[in-house]
Input
Amino acid sequence: MKTENRRPNGAARTVILLLFLLCGSIVSLKWAVERIPRKKIPGASIIYIPSGKYLKFATFGYSSLVADLIYLWAIQYYTTYTIVDRFENLEHIFSIIAELDPQYTDPYEVGALIAVTEARDLKLALKILDLGLAKNPDQWIFPFEAGHHAQRAGDYHTAREYYEKTMKIPGAPEIAKRLYAAAGFRVMDLEESWKTWLEVYNTAPDERTRKIASKHLYQVKAASDTILINRTAATFKEKYGRLPADLEELVRVGLLASLPKDLDGKDYIYNPKTGEIKAPSVWWKR
Amino acid sequence: MKTRAIALNTFKEAIRDRILYLLFFFAAVSLAFSRLLAVLTVGDRLKIIKDVGLASISIFGVLMAILIGTGLVYKEIDKKTIYTLLSKPIERWQFLLGKFLGLVLTLFIMTLAMSGIFLAILFLHTGKLEGQMLLAILFIFLELVLITAVAILFSCFSTPILSSIFSLSFYLIGHLSWGLETLIQKTRPGAGRAALRGLAAILPDLENFNFKTEVVHGLTIDPRFYLFSAFYGLVYTLFILALAVLIFKKRDFV
Amino acid sequence: MATVLNIDNLCKAFKIGFVPKKREILKGVSLSVEAGEIFGYLGPNGAGKTTTLKCVLSLIFPDRGKIEIFGHPSLSARAKERLGYLPENPYFYDYLTGAEFLDFYARLFGLKKKEKEEKIDSLLRLVGMEKARDLQLRKFSRGMLQRVGLAQALINDPALLFLDEPLGGLDPLGRKELRDIIVRLKKEGKTIFLCSHILQDIEMICDRVAIIVGGRVISQGALQSLISEKVLFTEVTLSGVDPADLVDLGEPVSTLGDRILLKVLQEDNIDNLMALMHERKGRIHSLIPRTETLEDIFVDMVRQG
Output
């Protein structure tokens, strides 16, 4: 009798033990599998969708939501560093998102960010941002960021173009102008740079901006003057075989009409031994 | 009024249907989940919450309309409760209209409840009430009304499972309308194209009620669009109901 | 007496099956019901009783034939105001309580609030369902559903009442109560159209009957005229007499203790039997003449049909 009572209990106990074991093995299996480096992550079949245009048909009016979900997935995908070739489809995935919800600004920005910082592909980043601007001509953020990316990569010409585009969009921040002018200085288009900085100075809404503008104006003038003086000194050297003793000599021999002064009216400092010309003040300390 | 009696009775029946609460539960879960999902994104968190929220209200609303609507008339015929009903001095169209209005009332309450949760979640996140959302939800509701009419139409002559499939297909086709447009443009002019054009005219364009994307991005819409959509919805609903009345009128209840 | 219901050559065929094959259910049904009577409509299962009823109530649309109620040619809303209908195996909305259920139907007739509440109370009392007033219909037993179903049929105080198998599934007490209610309704001046295949009940309460077999009414008339008064045989229960002496008088059917049940075929033999009992000092416990019942007629007709 006793054994009979115990048998059903024993059976229940074995089942519970079995359940625990199975549970444990499921958990450890999953843990082990996650350690294995993988080529793709779930959902990667998104890559194979030919075009966002056709995907839009399959969303039955929920295209905005699907864009969100694909974007979320893309973020996970691009932060999975074990997938080494994940940048191959960057343009494709983000163009799908753009097709589904063209006015969703984050994906353009983030896609470009990923392109330029992780994939080190400036061209792709700019392409994505151009797409954003094409679909949303009123969003100044796209050429703005494009300018920044180009600038950081050292391509001042491209940066300058983008800053110019930004300036043209109504509602763009004032700083775009300043960045344009600064980039202009970098490419040594001193005239344009001076003109823009003067504009900024004259239309400055506050003291701080005016100060910044005046600093840059100083910088541009100093650069322009320094180039002029250096060129004149080189001509002097050619003619006379030696460096001028001081800057006035250049005026005395008639190579310069008058000695240029810096924006504050001070003289440029000349080192007759090396021929180096320096502005009296550091432009950004003024 | 007789239609009102049937409508209230239908409302009582629908509001006690367990499917309703199951779907409502999932809608609430979905809305809460949007909050979680928003944490995963880089950038605008609010957009995800709004998108998921509006989509949830839309999807679960449609499911409620279809799952309950397709059983409304069928159950009465199957369980034979319709015998005592139609032997009373009530016209068959009054019966159908009553059923329709009862379900519409139920869906209205459910939509209100889901919207309440949605706006509350938005409020917790932003600290302000987004009234614009209500506009999108209003048109989601109008779409639900139309789907209800369709579900009832199918319920008049088909079993709940088949009716559900037909109604769902109606919904999906309705959102593919501009797929049809593209197809028309790509087809060579002729009989095929004319037929497709005819089809496009009859089939509903449910995208008319879809203002979700616009509302989430805060774009302004020409008020004429709103008016057109509302009018279109009303006319199409009446069309479907008239069809249902016609089919129901001549039916033998064996 | 006015004819409240007149059916003339009603025909209805159904298309059954995936490849629709026509099946004729009603092949020309004609009958008429007079005011203030209880009319029995009998027939075997599948004869077309319920189909006839549904045609009358415009739940089904007949192929051919004429139906007149209260003299109106087709079933209009006005005619329906004076009708009541209790279907076979009634099923109602589970989630409503008894009172809510009656209230719903009352609204369909547009009854005013006070009138409605009085009506509901009196009807619940009539069918003996006052205690179930606030009980949900899903918890009702079959008999309770039947009773509340009758209440629903009476909500508008109809002049013509259609009852389809109202006594089916009731226990003997329930059947008696319902029969009494029906008779009482007749006394109030209502006309009752009763569909049934339980012949004992029909025999007890109906004035006129129609028998439908195979989609046709094969017999129609007053109940009394259908059943003759002729005595078929007499059943006698007696004791105290030797069975051998009874051989000429009748057939012994069964024996219980010292009691013998005897079937006496000829009427004259009854007198002879009585004489014998008196002579032998035996006892007659019961003497029951068996006349032709409706069942006998019915079985005959169905067999012939």
About this structure: DSSP finds eleven helices and no strands in chain B.
